[in-house]
Amino acid sequence: MMFGMLTFGLLACDDDDEEKVETPSETSASYLGQMVVAYQGTNIPTDSVNVVANVNKDSSLVSLDWKKVKFVPQMPVTIDLSVPNITAKKESGKIVFAADSIIPTMLGNEVAKYAASDIKGEIFGDSISLSLKFGSFPTSYKGILKK
After folding, report:
1. Among the listed residues 20, 22, 40, the one whose alpha carbon sits nearest the alpha carbon of residue 30
2. Which segments in the chain show pLDDT lower than 50?
3. In whole angstroms, what is the distance from residue 127 CA to residue 129 CA?
4. DSSP 76
5. Does residue 9 fall inside a structural domain?
6. Is residue 114 included in any domain, yes or no?
7. C-alpha dihedral over 18, 24, 26, 32, to 10 degrees?
8. Domain that holds residue 40
9. Between 20 and 30 A from 27 (CA), which of 66, 87, 121, 140?
10. What is the total count of domains within the chain?
11. What is the CATH number of the domain that holds 38?
12. Residue 23 confidence (pLDDT)
């Protein structure tokens, strides 16, 4: 239900599993972990959620790509959703990122109804943890580097 409107016109998503890859402009790392969404007064956990963090070369921006995710069990399909260009910085050996509000994209289109807000997180060693709201739905995620 929560992301039911997101299902319009969705086709099969790309099946590529991304591994840690360094390019001249960014580093990508794929994490596997648990997402928890607060929905109608209940915390709904989902295990084995894949999030790819793309960090630009100077660690000033992070983009988060949620791969084949269902935010609540009632969602009829999985989706790929990206939260681009989150301000970041290196701090005490970790990458800390935060933003007030960013419009996520799905299949290259903005999804304003589920604006990501109150974004806070960090990447440290082989783990990532973050919290944000998609629309009015608080969401958290903790993951370990996919090997």
Report:
1. 20
2. 1-23
3. 7
4. S
5. no
6. yes
7. 30
8. 22-145
9. 140
10. 1
11. 2.40.160
12. 45
